[in-house]
Amino acid sequence: MTYINSTTKWLAFNYDVGLLEMHFLVVKIFKDITNRRHVSTLFRKERFSSSYLHYHNNHPYLQKKNIVRGQMVGAARKTTLKEDLVNELNYIGGLSVARGYPKVFLVLERRNFAGMG
User: Fold this and answer.
1) What is the rounded CA–CA span in Å between residue 103 and residue 94?
2) 2: helix, strand or coil
3) pLDDT in tens, 43-73
4) How does DSSP assign 63-85, residue by residue?
């Protein structure tokens, strides 16, 4: 990590390692001692702005659609447990609705995730 951070002055990677969990970029990895496995979920830093492109902004429809889809796919790839994924999809939905995205649009995107209906 020291080497990576020494390659640029305008970007620094931070990480936090503890006995049972580690935070790196937007992922929190921790030990599930009961089930004897590692589990990952999303981790938001203090500086997370929760600001996405506004739906009524003058951008192509597919770009707006892909922002939401990309966030949902990212959540699916970075979470191990279904309940964490459901929480993340709800969070992304809330942020998107706050930025003007129609709820119907979010329901259609969410159908891509089996069982998340």
Assistant:
1) 9
2) helix
3) 877 777 667 788 898 989 888 888 888 889 9
4) HHHHHHHHHHHHHHHH--SHHHH
One-letter amino acid at 107 equals: V
Q: What angle do CA 104, 106, 107 make, to 5 degrees?
A: 65
Q: How far is CA 29 from the centre of its chain?
A: 14
5: tokens are 């951070």
Work out the widest C-alpha separation in the chain, in whole angstroms: 50
pTM score, two decimals?
A: 0.75
Is 76 within 8 Å of 84 (Cβ atoms)?
no
Own/partner pairs, 52-55, CB within 8 angstroms, 24+ separation: 52/95, 52/96, 52/99, 53/99, 54/99, 54/100, 55/96, 55/99, 55/100, 55/101, 55/102, 55/105
Q: In this structure, what token pair is assigned to residue 67?
A: 């922002």
